[in-house]
Amino acid sequence: MSEPATKEDLASLKVEIGNDIAALKDELVEAFRDGQTEILKAFYGFMQTVQNRFQEDDQTEASMKRRMTTLESRILEIEKRINRPPAASA
Prior knowledge:
Blueprint: H1 7-83
């Protein structure tokens, strides 16, 4: 049969359990931080892709506007020539 636990045994056990809990807490905090880091890395990567896409869209839109302006100018010149009254003959 085993002997009953002494106050020293209980105190030692209490310290050991406290140390184990502190170690587990540290591991858990580190795991949460690692998870946050991974989420942030993924989010930043996604945002970089979205930002690149927006820049491409902005460039495409600006290019389309330039082309539209050029076409409108050409059409205006054609309309001017068509609607110009004939020159008077001398």
